[in-house]
Design goal:
The chain is an all-alpha fold and 327 residues long. It has 15 helices and 2 strands.
């Protein structure tokens, strides 16, 4: 099937996702600068194996969420509910009844909860129809509230040994934590789906010009539904990873993940208006934010300063996007 008319910019974005562009090279340069700053300010702490493992592990959870969010934004949507979906899935997966099912049952429960929440978002947005901002804002509030109700506001401690063992050094593969390997697998699969499949081409086309896509025979509503299902799936996987990382489930899990994921996608080159984006750029964006957070923590800077810095980076990234689009 020929590509829809009027989606040239989207297809150029698709091709751009398969190679390093200027923005991605710039992000790599930023990471190198941050590494130099860390080596200068905390030479005994930053460039250690343990700290690098910590950065990658912390990036892994929000990184998986970011992969799903990147697809949604490329498809012309937005998802403000990812943090709350992570919280809900982590709480549901750590109830006593679910833990009795063992590792497999907890993982399945987490994934199913994520898919269920993503399905609700997708149905409201694609077939409601409801504006993505409003639908996901409602899910953000309701999922967080449901997580609080299920947990009673208390931390649910994991007692399943098989789950806890995934977070200890003995489970590392050649020195790489399992959570990092999961993130790598999700990112690679996401890159392949976006750049090498019909689903990826339809995602780009839908975000670039939904009306032209519809006239070309693409089921735009179904595509949007599938994108929110994908986002929910990524949230379910991330929730289980967070349970492994913290050894618990609680209603505060995933707090501000929506900010981190959307920001990482934006500075990675994904257009907020849809039609263009890169999984590789989003991964680099996650690494940049995680490294900044790590540097701030090592230098005993307050959390509010971190949030101000993230906000400034988001504004700068959006201004750069607008400047490029106006050229």
């Amino acid at each position: 099937m020929p590509p829809p008319a009027g989606t040239g910019s989207g297809l150029r974005g698709l091709l751009a996702g398969s190679r390093l562009d200027g923005r991605q090279l710039s992000l790599i340069g930023v990471l190198l600068v941050l590494a130099a700053i860390g080596a200068f300010t905390k030479p005994d702490d930053f460039l250690t194996g343990d700290n690098l493992q910590l950065i990658l592990t912390q990036a892994s959870v929000v990184g998986v969420v970011t992969v799903g969010v990147t697809f949604v934004i490329i498809g012309g949507g937005i998802d403000l509910s990812v943090g709350s979906m992570v919280a809900l899935a982590s709480v549901w997966a750590t109830t006593v009844a679910t833990q009795d099912l063992g590792l497999g049952g907890m993982l399945l429960c987490s994934v199913l909860v994520g898919l269920g929440a993503g399905l609700v978002n997708g149905l409201l947005i694609a077939y409601g129809p409801m504006v993505p901002f409003i639908a996901t804002l409602a899910m953000m509030a309701s999922a967080r509230g449901l997580a609080l109700q299920i947990s009673g506001g208390e931390t649910q401690v994991v007692t399943v040994d098989a789950v806890l063992r995934l977070g200890v050094p003995e489970s590392y593969v050649l020195g790489v934590p399992p959570l990092v390997l999961i993130f790598l697998a999700v990112a690679v699969l996401g890159w392949l789906v976006l750049n090498r499949t019909t689903f990826g081409r339809r995602t780009v086309a839908t975000g670039g010009n939904p009306e032209a896509s519809r006239l070309a025979g693409i089921a735009v509503k179904r595509q949007r539904l599938l994108l929110y299902l994908l986002s929910g799936l990524c949230c379910g996987i991330a929730a289980f990873m967070l349970v492994v990382l913290t050894g618990s489930g609680q209603s505060t899990n995933g707090n501000l993940y929506e900010l981190d994921a959307i920001a990482a996608a934006i500075i990675g080159g994904t257009l907020l208006s849809g039609g263009r984006g890169s999984i590789l750029g989003s991964v680099l964006g996650v690494l940049v934010f995680t490294t900044i957070t790590n540097l701030f923590a090592l230098n005993n800077l307050q959390t509010d300063v971190q949030q101000i810095a993230k906000g400034a980076i988001i504004v700068a990234a959006v201004l750069v996007q607008k400047g490029r689009n106006s050229q």
